[in-house]
Task: inverse folding
């Protein structure tokens, strides 16, 4: 009988403690309703955090993310995304490697001339650092490799205006046909400079004499690079 009383006392004590904790939590939640707009919203079961950005974006812009889809009828309950940085500031500095200025294998990227109308369809992977300087150190794939973007010529050579009216460049427009990897190699250059500025002067003279014009080539489906500087997590179309 004594043992039964002790067990009941412990059980009741545990329940009392749990009820007290719940009452305290409810009190806190009620106090935060005015500053927590999602507190009364109902969402579908959350997926696991996505770590795609961690392996592709520059560390300063790399985040893990999780999408929450609202199932509430309240119009104030919108879908939401939770984001957390992949690395702390200190760890970002640990992976601050010096990249090569150019990747000769990647035509159309970092001022490497594009000799054909479009780069080859076969995926091209190139080193992005001088690997001999980092022997014995821990590196991630995005630290020492790039996958070249596929670049295509979208216009003929012509004058490209700048903020300085007297500083015109003889160049043609490039577009990204397929994204590269990681973030710093994701998009092709915006333009391809001609080796001889006089080419555009001759081109203008011929057009004037012939009285014609040349239209840009837009037969390919290009990737929109309007948000070229944004990290991947901002470019993803979340479900």
Result:
């Amino acid at each position: 009988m004594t043992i039964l009383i002790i067990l009941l006392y412990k059980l009741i004590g545990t329940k009392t403690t749990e009820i007290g904790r719940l009452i305290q939590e409810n009190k806190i939640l009620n106090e935060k309703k005015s500053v927590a707009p999602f507190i009364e919203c109902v969402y579908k079961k959350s997926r696991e955090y996505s770590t795609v950005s961690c392996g592709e974006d520059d560390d300063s812009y790399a985040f893990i993310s999780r999408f929450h889809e609202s199932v509430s009828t309240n119009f104030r309950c919108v879908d939401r995304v939770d984001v957390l940085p992949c690395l702390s500031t200190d760890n970002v500095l640990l992976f601050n490697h010096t990249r090569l200025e150019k990747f000769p294998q990647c035509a159309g990227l970092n001022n490497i001339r594009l000799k054909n109308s479009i780069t080859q369809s076969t995926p091209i992977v190139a080193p992005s650092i001088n690997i001999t300087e980092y022997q014995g150190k821990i590196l991630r794939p995005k630290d020492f490799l790039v996958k070249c973007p596929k670049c295509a010529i979208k216009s003929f050579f012509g004058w490209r205006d700048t903020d300085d009216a007297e500083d015109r460049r003889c160049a043609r427009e490039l577009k990204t046909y397929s994204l590269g990897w990681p973030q710093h190699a994701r998009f092709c250059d915006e333009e391809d400079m001609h080796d001889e500025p006089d080419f555009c002067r001759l081109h203008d003279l011929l057009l004037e004499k012939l009285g014609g014009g040349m239209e840009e080539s837009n037969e390919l489906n290009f990737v929109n690079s309007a948000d070229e500087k944004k990290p991947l997590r901002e470019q993803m179309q979340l479900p």
Observations:
- The beta strands are 63-68, 80-85, 125-127, 145-147, 150-153, 158-160, 169-178, 191-193.
- Residues 235-239 have pLDDT under 50 and may be disordered.
